[in-house]
Amino acid sequence: MGVMVLGLVLAVAFLPASYGQTLQLNNTSNSALDDPGYGADFVEGDSFLLTISGAAPNAPVTLLEWQNGISVAPTPYYWGNTDSSGNFQLSNTKAPSFIGTYVENWYVNAERRSETRSRSR
What's the pTM? Predict the structure, then answer.
């Protein structure tokens, strides 16, 4: 099995002034691969943590996602709700099916809040 690397570039669109939302994506298996100027890099088997902070409280978090230019789902996928403080976390492990080129649009309360772009290299 060859080594595959997934690099992630984050561009964050901020909430209205009443919220100070941030979105972070980190490699929790190998933080040495995190690059503040670029994003987090991953190899197959690495784990990640996506964190949204300071968003609307108790609001649904959804995602529109394209893998290799093809829509993964035609409607936003529901991941859960922010907590009472407006925070949300998602973690998983990079399996071979996750390696590829992605564009992800994250929504809180049905309003687009950020976009992540990733690519294999």
Answer: 0.71
